[in-house]
Protein 1
Amino acid sequence: MIAVLKPSATDEQKNHLISWLKSQSLDVHVSQGENYTVLGLIGDTGIIDVDLLESLEMVESVKRVSEPFKQVNRKFHPEDTVVEIGGKVKIGGGNFVLIAGPCSVESRGQVAQIAREVSAAGADVLRGGAFKPRTSPYDFQGLKADGIELLLEAKKETGMPIISEIMNANHLPLFDDVDIIQIGARNMQNFELLKEVGKTDKPILLKRGLANTLKELLMSAEYIMSEGNRNVILCERGIRTFETATRNTLDLSAVPMLREMTHLPVVIDPSHATGIARLVEPMAMAAAASGADGIMVEVHNDPIHALCDGAQSLTPSQFEKVASKVRLIREVALQ
Amino acid sequence: MIAVLKPSATDEQKNHLISWLKSQSLDVHVSQGENYTVLGLIGDTGIIDVDLLESLEMVESVKRVSEPFKQVNRKFHPEDTVVEIGGKVKIGGGNFVLIAGPCSVESRGQVAQIAREVSAAGADVLRGGAFKPRTSPYDFQGLKADGIELLLEAKKETGMPIISEIMNANHLPLFDDVDIIQIGARNMQNFELLKEVGKTDKPILLKRGLANTLKELLMSAEYIMSEGNRNVILCERGIRTFETATRNTLDLSAVPMLREMTHLPVVIDPSHATGIARLVEPMAMAAAASGADGIMVEVHNDPIHALCDGAQSLTPSQFEKVASKVRLIREVALQ
Amino acid sequence: MIAVLKPSATDEQKNHLISWLKSQSLDVHVSQGENYTVLGLIGDTGIIDVDLLESLEMVESVKRVSEPFKQVNRKFHPEDTVVEIGGKVKIGGGNFVLIAGPCSVESRGQVAQIAREVSAAGADVLRGGAFKPRTSPYDFQGLKADGIELLLEAKKETGMPIISEIMNANHLPLFDDVDIIQIGARNMQNFELLKEVGKTDKPILLKRGLANTLKELLMSAEYIMSEGNRNVILCERGIRTFETATRNTLDLSAVPMLREMTHLPVVIDPSHATGIARLVEPMAMAAAASGADGIMVEVHNDPIHALCDGAQSLTPSQFEKVASKVRLIREVALQ
Amino acid sequence: MIAVLKPSATDEQKNHLISWLKSQSLDVHVSQGENYTVLGLIGDTGIIDVDLLESLEMVESVKRVSEPFKQVNRKFHPEDTVVEIGGKVKIGGGNFVLIAGPCSVESRGQVAQIAREVSAAGADVLRGGAFKPRTSPYDFQGLKADGIELLLEAKKETGMPIISEIMNANHLPLFDDVDIIQIGARNMQNFELLKEVGKTDKPILLKRGLANTLKELLMSAEYIMSEGNRNVILCERGIRTFETATRNTLDLSAVPMLREMTHLPVVIDPSHATGIARLVEPMAMAAAASGADGIMVEVHNDPIHALCDGAQSLTPSQFEKVASKVRLIREVALQ
């Protein structure tokens, strides 16, 4: 950690600070410039509160040299993490995964049909929302336990592993046979929930919050890993910006950036990021080109009685086209 | 609800859509312009998914006319809500409240001393964090149940009502004698937690999320009220923007804007918004001038053994000065 | 245009407003709902100030049905615009262009060498900054007229068309033989400059401002086209968000979104968007996959005496690899 | 300047870098930590390109210790700058200024009447737009030279100094008798224009760009000052965020923050920041409470034939009330 002291700092102040820092078991290297004094702090600087130090009258600025994330950090774990899903699918380390399915589980028929169709179209994992986080308390909140049940039936029939979102740690027993537990964007910093899923050994797909930095995403992954669960998959699903043409702004540079910072696999969700079905194909292809380890898209079978497709959902035949293009792109990207 | 159809929509498409809408028990008023056809939908439009309708090929845009929030809406409840706190303090409807105390509860001595000092300086409510949401799993997570205990002791000694943050609905029994339960910014859309505190009758201080709109803040308040708890206090604590000079950007125009939209009281937290103790005084004054119903500030007694003040905490004597200026400003604002 | 009136609007107010609107030569269709009254305004609504109308006490909200952009609008010009560059290169309508070269023109030797190398590696157009917009007045502001001169020499030698940024309409005569004039992000809403380049018939590459919406980008293109110049190329180069891991956030969904909104070609600049040379390859590939009509990248030959590569510049051999991958991706994207 | 080298840097790389830095006439202090090597660079570090240095494979991060702004910096000029306006009004150093007038100059009668009314209500300076930056080329662009003429007549009649926006340096001669030249938000980084107004000795009111940091605002002020003009007034007018309830988000913490960073006076424009007339009073009061040196508001006399007030304009009598409250707040703030 480096602290830069202001030109106005008196010798007394400096000595006071330096002895306090030493009393915290830190080595202090002093580097005296023309105007500024720079302190290099060596040792376990994790105990120092950066904001507090920075607030000292005499301190110009403070900078941590080492990242606050450890277990997720590629520096300490150079090889890609490969997460095994349901005993048959792998993601990361060169293994690419297509996740597809309806936004919400609505009925047995719906899930079963979509499951068969996306499986035939090349999807590796079936997604489906049973517990739905909705901005309004008056909106449909999902089929809950019944929804999980229907997903499990579809898993049994098709053999596809399934992923579904959890919103409450008390529901964990319902997810016993769910293959990937999803933590939604709004719960990315629900630290209590992160700790609980960290105590399981299930693969966890952690979505980036709407206004969270990549560092914060990694710190939330660190919460899960610090409890012992190493099966974490990251998911970029659009961030909140001033632009209103798309629902959110898909931050694809997060893919190569995260690849440098962490060994965990990264999945892109173009459906939620853009909120527009017509943009899913180009953005799924762009995601594959950027080096993502997987793509998660919404697929709907009979959108409002054939009246329209869901705002952000593809039909199974559209998905099939996307899936094949994505795999071609990926071949080029890997060259 | 209004739906604008594209010039390219055929008569067949229009008729198909209109009969579907009518089958949903809606009245449809058709208004034919030179290029566009406008449908006015009357009835219970809550059942219509705007995104879905907007995604129809023939639809240019859809607009809800009525707000999705009901119980928090000033239109349906014109009088200010007054929330009673601990039987002695009121907020809203002209009642102004000063909340002060340490960021984290650290020890019995610390809480007791600060409680006495902020009480003497004019604070109405004592704040103190027992459960601390921290970005890093390795940072101090608060004294938890013991911290609540120490706050309750300080309440007993000084007679001040207390406020503390909850992070997990399973902890609710610990908050039985806490006067205001705080929902932190990161949990503003933890809908499961909102529903649980909505089942109590305790005053809830709901902080705006870092990247949440005022409408979303009100929808989260609606979650609490829809479960029966009418004692909701809103809190603006800075939003995330591109500016890095301050930790967040305090959005003070939220105060008069929320006053129009809702009857609920609004509190400003300048300490977390700016992250800089030196900015707390001017921003607390500005908050009072903007018409806020209360201000919540961090006060620390013995910042790092007198070495510095916390990055965003005032000393009790600084707080006393802020408190008296804020009350003077408020007198002018009310004229 | 649609205006929704509040439930509280009196008949007298409504009649007053309606007769005023009619006096502005508009037809007014009234649609009466249970709570709200909706006015459909037909005619030349361009003369109505939306903000002003919305500010009326009785008005709930106002919505323009038609887009404010005309000449750039794909609705009125369904075919892709193809811009011819220097008589030999085309962009748009299926024609893809690679633009490469140094951030700043530094010397005759530098430009000449990079020009030869990027030409050999497959670049279609040579970029080079002669007038440099710099945040600080003390930073290098470019070689100015001399820089343009060196670019023209490189053009003569290699036969490549050239692109360079203009910052002042008074410099236009210097750009007589420059093939594409670039308007930088900071000048996207320098309307005086837009009008002046609109009076020429040169291809104009218009960069999106750091905090400008796609609509605003199109309105700025409309400024150029409304003066008679139809040769406009749009360029996405990253927007400003809260994320600091990359310099800006590349908004790739802008590519398919702009394709729907406008007939103008769209170029992506991954170098400025990310500010990190290592991210240029994956982001250039993603841009091609998303359907961009061109990519503009920074290439440097002898970065600080071989000490390092520029923060966002590729070496010619890195560029060659990017160029070949981008062309492969493009083949898949076009399938 | 401080450069942190990665643990992976070899001794050869380090020595190579250090000798290159020394060849740039810098002193290099090496501080060796357990993992990281920290270089303290002393001397004229202005010549080093931070981005470039940071892009070196061996470099973890680079940090400038000193701010890049000099003449605007309070460190080098501790006393408040007082700008004299038209020989009779002062701003800064305890002098507070109210600026009021119409958004656009529309007619002789309009300007003359508003000028008399705002003067009577306590305004110190008359504002009025003659050259109007409009997002659409089809919107009213102002009366231009005629508008300036009408403002000058109003100045003559009332004796009030006037302020108006410039959009093109070629128009400077028209501003000979204008007392303050305004640089609008969209031109904050139009460096060519900044340099030209920097060559005059007129007071310049520089508005913060919609997505510009405080540092960038100061760097633009530095452009003006570096050309010799010391009469710079800064203006915060709202920044672009995700929130859509208000047109922009007024960043009032900019006031105390800028006061620390610079000696230049700071004015707040609540009309443009919020875009809503009803919010002007509370935000003007909040601005005064935060310590602003002045407030600029829009006042309109006969809004759409008495039908409504402009979206963001006060009537003269509303302005009078705001003016008196603002002065009362200011008295408290100065205590």
Protein 2
Amino acid sequence: MIVVVTPNPAVDVTYRVAEQRIGETQRVLDVARRPGGKGLNVGRVLDTTGTGTHAVLPLGGAAGRWIAEALDALGLAHTDVAIGGETRTTVTVVDDLAHPTMLGEPGPELGAEEWDAVTAAVTALLPGADALVVSGSLPRATDPGVVARWVAAARHHGVPSVVDCSGDALLAAASAGATVCKPNREELLDATGADDERSGARLLLERGATVVVVSRGSDGIAAHTADRVLDVPAVPGVSGNPTGAGDAATAGLVGALVGALDRALDRALDRATDGGPGSTAVLDDAVLLHALRSAAAHGAAAVLRPVAGEVDPADVARFLHPDHDHADTDRTRTPA
Amino acid sequence: MIVVVTPNPAVDVTYRVAEQRIGETQRVLDVARRPGGKGLNVGRVLDTTGTGTHAVLPLGGAAGRWIAEALDALGLAHTDVAIGGETRTTVTVVDDLAHPTMLGEPGPELGAEEWDAVTAAVTALLPGADALVVSGSLPRATDPGVVARWVAAARHHGVPSVVDCSGDALLAAASAGATVCKPNREELLDATGADDERSGARLLLERGATVVVVSRGSDGIAAHTADRVLDVPAVPGVSGNPTGAGDAATAGLVGALVGALDRALDRALDRATDGGPGSTAVLDDAVLLHALRSAAAHGAAAVLRPVAGEVDPADVARFLHPDHDHADTDRTRTPA
């Protein structure tokens, strides 16, 4: 079971209108509501592909209750931490003529006791967990140290952690020894202030991350370790809705790593002197390449779906085992 | 106590953004949520001005629960009829640069049993009621006959009814013998197909309405009976937010009529042969003019408030008792 933390969940509402117009009254032709936030997207994709998850998320108000009921309806296990604020809503307005317009509520601020309750919920689940995933933005005014506490708790329980956050939360996760930091390229450069991807990844590795996986959309995905870079291209010829593709990629990455780690764990525990499954010993090139290919296949499968948080497992399988030989395109480099 | 039915309530959400732009991601700077729908606006204004109300409304889903809790927080009495659908939300996007953009969800459709439950809730409250108000649109695919049933139930219990609906629901209310039909001018012409206000009003009167009150925004408000038209101008020099001004006017009208009817009821019951308080006997010119002035004052007071469903009673009093002599501007005409 994979524990997936969504620090700032949202009710994602999509309104279809005939034509977006500013300053007018518009009849909404179709309404879609779904539980959102990057962690919930990751969890839904993992669940679709047969990997059990348990979501941990702070929820408040009517929007929070709606999310809890929607997760029940989807059959996803979740531990809700009750908060005083109202869970945020995002409204996306779409038509067939213009780009979507997205209106994002600022979301609630959580008190220290509320974050303590989230940490307690995470910690209670870790003893039975195969991995911890933390994904998505933090609510306003949140101490990024909360992410470090979850990563440290995972290390304490010998559970690998994958963190897809941005800004100071990403830096804090690296410093706490996250097994995998998984920003997209823009988030990596933004958080580290680096000018290029390799420099940014090195900064996170030096802080303590075991691997830094960088997704670049149609430019593929890479895994950086202290001494090498593994590169896997995006699945070619796929177009559609990129929203949530990065989250599906995280799900593909985590699912593949957990499978490999399960198999490698017994061997690794024999030789790892510290850090347990955080040791790079278990993350050899074959495992990482497989995980990157799984991430790319899941990301491409998500692009084919109209909404975030969904993949068709048949698409994943098709993209993961195409007719071409991976060796033609995948590269392992040893940076200068 | 005034029973106020809101057939299609809504969560009214207002998002303030820096600048409305189509096709972009916009941070919402400020979120306001309020229970909406014309009937709830009428009820809140009546409550603010000291007239007790009891709201009846179908509510479903998380949005419905939010409205129920918001009404509790406002201290408004309400009977909720549980429905299977999700109560609608309206999103209004505002900035300081352009007109507001309003996105209105279609709202749920109610089944026959759900409407029966609304009718039962209304009927149960009528024995203790001073008036029945039905205000606002009907949900999609609703038989307008439901409004006629509520009006008929009110007549059966000797309770005057005021109906601010549009389209076929307005016609049905008139045919059922509503004491007051209160469309705005556009709604009147639209529902009746008439070319002018007097002709439209006559069509509703001929169907069975006792009085037709037509609001015209800054062009004042009029009461039509079979043989005369009473005209009261809008309060001059008031500008602001017209949203909900018509609902405040309805509240002002109803509050004044109920007070007058209370006083007149005993006398009227002696001479009315049928229709009880629906008889025009109790709605003499003095009562109607007072009610129209109250409506105009409430409407103007609502314009001064930033959101619908609110008036400052001090503004109402100021507009109701200005220094000028009403007789200078109010007119009673006997149409040709």
Protein 3
Amino acid sequence: MAIKVALAGATGYAGTELTRLLYCHPDIELVSLAAGRREGEKLVVINPQFHGLRYEAFIGLEDLLATEAELIFLALPHGHAMEIVPNLLAAGRRVIDLSADYRLQDVQTFAAWYGKEHCGSEALAQAVYGLPELQDVDWATVRLVANPGCYPTAILLGLAPFLQAGLVKTEGIIVDAKSGVSGAGRSPKLEMLYSEVNENVRAYGVGGVHRHLPEIEQEVSRWTGLDCTITFTPHLIPMTRGILATIYLTPNHTIGTADALQVLERFYQGCPFVHVLPPGSLPNTKAVFGSNHCQLGAVVDGRTGRLIVISVIDNLGKGAAGQAVQNMNLMCGWPEEMGLATPGLFP
Amino acid sequence: MAIKVALAGATGYAGTELTRLLYCHPDIELVSLAAGRREGEKLVVINPQFHGLRYEAFIGLEDLLATEAELIFLALPHGHAMEIVPNLLAAGRRVIDLSADYRLQDVQTFAAWYGKEHCGSEALAQAVYGLPELQDVDWATVRLVANPGCYPTAILLGLAPFLQAGLVKTEGIIVDAKSGVSGAGRSPKLEMLYSEVNENVRAYGVGGVHRHLPEIEQEVSRWTGLDCTITFTPHLIPMTRGILATIYLTPNHTIGTADALQVLERFYQGCPFVHVLPPGSLPNTKAVFGSNHCQLGAVVDGRTGRLIVISVIDNLGKGAAGQAVQNMNLMCGWPEEMGLATPGLFP
Amino acid sequence: MAIKVALAGATGYAGTELTRLLYCHPDIELVSLAAGRREGEKLVVINPQFHGLRYEAFIGLEDLLATEAELIFLALPHGHAMEIVPNLLAAGRRVIDLSADYRLQDVQTFAAWYGKEHCGSEALAQAVYGLPELQDVDWATVRLVANPGCYPTAILLGLAPFLQAGLVKTEGIIVDAKSGVSGAGRSPKLEMLYSEVNENVRAYGVGGVHRHLPEIEQEVSRWTGLDCTITFTPHLIPMTRGILATIYLTPNHTIGTADALQVLERFYQGCPFVHVLPPGSLPNTKAVFGSNHCQLGAVVDGRTGRLIVISVIDNLGKGAAGQAVQNMNLMCGWPEEMGLATPGLFP
Amino acid sequence: MAIKVALAGATGYAGTELTRLLYCHPDIELVSLAAGRREGEKLVVINPQFHGLRYEAFIGLEDLLATEAELIFLALPHGHAMEIVPNLLAAGRRVIDLSADYRLQDVQTFAAWYGKEHCGSEALAQAVYGLPELQDVDWATVRLVANPGCYPTAILLGLAPFLQAGLVKTEGIIVDAKSGVSGAGRSPKLEMLYSEVNENVRAYGVGGVHRHLPEIEQEVSRWTGLDCTITFTPHLIPMTRGILATIYLTPNHTIGTADALQVLERFYQGCPFVHVLPPGSLPNTKAVFGSNHCQLGAVVDGRTGRLIVISVIDNLGKGAAGQAVQNMNLMCGWPEEMGLATPGLFP
């Protein structure tokens, strides 16, 4: 029998993609859409692609508890989920939170990187970091998922297998990532105008200041037991969706490209959403556009010995809404691919 | 029980989109992919988004008859389908042809606009023009569908209701259409290079020479019984997918915007893929991106009396692959929306 | 000897392009940049392409009169120029206003279309509409130029020669225009975000409500003595710069494409910025990108008899800043092309 | 008195930009345009932005010697210049070659990376690597300039000052570069079609195989006397023009961002085309679009100690045609900025 779900934050880009995926999912009933600032407005005015669907007006966040939803997705700006998650859990609802609020287990780290005290930390102990390929939890028992950030998803999937295998040094890791601009959200900002973004590329958050860094390092440590401090440079490029992370690693011993690819293939055997490309092929973001897939490639530079790993995802798919649905499937005991089987949309 | 289907021409843009839709369709089994020039090559080399699917190598066109496919989609360049369709039909296969080969009922018109004699005209009598919203055929009996062109789909959906209602003059119709460039196909041409298309807009086929014109006028005549000669100007704009047609009509009598919208709403009542926007809203192509939907808007210009109708589709969705699947659903007696329920992908 | 000029509104898109052109002009001295809301801020923070230039901080609008500038460009939002133009003129300064404030000679028309009373109408009698190719004024005497809108520039250049020649009907004129989004200005709006504009096309201002309409009709009347009411549909397409106007005309008598092109060639003989393409060639916006040029093409549709004229400009070049410099050159008695000789930037 | 120049290879992207710059240059006379495969064709058919210029038909390469040109620009595909340069020099012409033919001083290195023997190596001894900011030659005596590649220009400008200052290690240098696609040239290739490039990013030439590597390492060695082996990963992003290089360096001692910026500022004092941004500012490619400028920024990562340098250029400007004009200015004893003073075109 279909379970009932609700979604709060349906007007942002991640929430919009989640609305689409939930609408197409065969085994759920989407009972309500909530929006913070746009309560009472009509879905189709803001997102006309949903013309013909029946969810006409958004309810307010405070009305979520009054719905019959057993599972609630929160796609709100950082800092809002922590105000309501403890209550939702106390009322027996399961929660998948797409914001950063429950990703960092240490409240001081959270305060340092997000600039505010955590006001819902009593729920932190229940929070499970929802990157299923790097998660061994008993999903049936999970009540609260902290859905990963888009950069951490792309980077951890390319990085963790090599660290876990002890094949590369923990020092000197450099990650250079390129992202479409939808990750910056849907609020009007001068630097996100079409005329500013088009035909332009720029780095931002350079020098170890991007908020996704502590999340990446925490999860490396949790999964592999290793501590590492990563140099991470995100870039905005003129496209809407997609992240490509170029990861520079230093092997402990001389290895070849085939060795590196074998490590990835073994690690992701049986994972329906992570594909390792054959030698000579390198991933491009368009191959995962609109999907929940990740594609990985690797090359060892014969001149310098570096291992270069390339990881691509759709930042709104595997980097946000798709992964949230994947987490729901696992929590509900359904096949991981339910509602997510579509390949990338091309061209 | 799932029926078996095959697809020839899986490497072009329409064929690629069709591969995706057929892969996701719940009630068919895609048994073979054929390619003319790329026989033996691997699908994932050309279309890496399908990494992980099992159709590894393309069969040749001549191998289609040897497959178990009951229904065969042809997404070949114009002029190729007519060479094999009669044989496929004779062998009891049903065919949905995405090319122009069976769209024009008059072989002289075909020869005049496509520059070659029709070599498979014995099948023309069986061909059904596959624009379901303007088609009254008994679908169970259909053996051959001529899947419409992208421009005709967008234009006929906006135009036909007003002509049928006798509300507008048949003279002086002007259609100004804007299309993404994927409609021009996947063969390498200088004028389709990114650096030529980006930040550029141009008209082409100006002055009544675009091949979609006779198709539009034939279908207007078949559906409404009216003859009209249309001024049609297509434009290429810097985007991949999407068509927006702006249709300028001259009402027979003074009408208002509300009257015009009512005509559309009545006409498309019960049509799951065509949505009429409320007064004050006008469609944009992004709302139908990646979907089989069409959105329609209309405005009457109070200063000049003109009726302006705006129609948007995804040229690879409702304008090609999506419509082909819709036609298959009808031929098989399935719900029209099977495998096509997804709203537009946004952003 | 170089004349001294100042520019108010240097932070918007037209003002930014004007800053670039004035910086490169060989015969002027740019003494001050003024900005309304950003007084005191540094130019290079907002427009880093000017790093190395000496205009570091913006002065306020009220400081313009204290500068030595003999000629002042105003690139302010509509409604601001009319508050200061009378004072600037009274102080002996010459003014080129890029806003709409002095384009409409009738104050009631202005109030009806711009929603406010004209508070500087005493200067209207001095205002010269600055489309040089359609202007016979004695430029040496001009004190105030109303620099045309971008759509009117593209449309009038394609339309006026045929009306003046008496070759086409004044009724039933349809103009379908496609514009890059920089014309919408630089203030942050949701619908101008990259993720909303990219891979999207939409019409706006449909049904005779776009503010450029009265300006077009006024200038047709002033130049040709003919009254016409035009159906005008502007569209936003995913590019930054460029306008392509497709103009549909009804010839009074049967004419051919060659006849139409000859009308244009004669009209623009000796005009350095307007180029008529040969038969079979049609203009694209990229050919005029970053320049002050306009390219025109024409085709007569043999099936319907319609004359289709296509006009392209850069909306920030000939459609705004370039034309403003052209007007300055004429006012100063310099060669029209001074500082404007660069062809379009390609690719 | 203006000198006479000719240009061979006027139809490619670099040649097109060079045509524009030479047309606008105040002190030269462009006497002929030559094209290899398109001899006899008209310039404006291929590049309609030059409509109105007088160079109507291309001469053949073999006709170059018959022109009066004292200085000849060659913008031909790799491997063509070396066939004619010795003859041009013998005839007393000066040459600026935009291809790779005379960039590598070692003919075996050339053969290894470009896959063919050097057939014009007798001229190599005269070749001067034309990156003026890293070149101490007596320009008046230069007969042959090897105009640098686009990636080497961006990278060397960001890298050389720190190596020369002895501030960073020569080991472990990583360069991650992002380029617009015009650098891939104008010949029709599937992977350069708009529908393939748009909304896509991919790495290429990964693992030390890009042909610009030996050029970078040769010039580092020539200028600083240091040997280094660089890890270099170029990426193609969906834009036409622009390169952003992110350079990861390991300081020998702890330094701060201010120290790093001071090194750059001192190095580029007096260089009109290289701008060092203040602390907290990072360059974006749009600020140099259409110009001969380079902008540099730097940040030291306090967590890892890495120095991250970011360098942006227009690959067709400072990365090709603009730099060629800069080299001509130096060879002719003119001010370096002549004909190149325009800031970046924005937006």
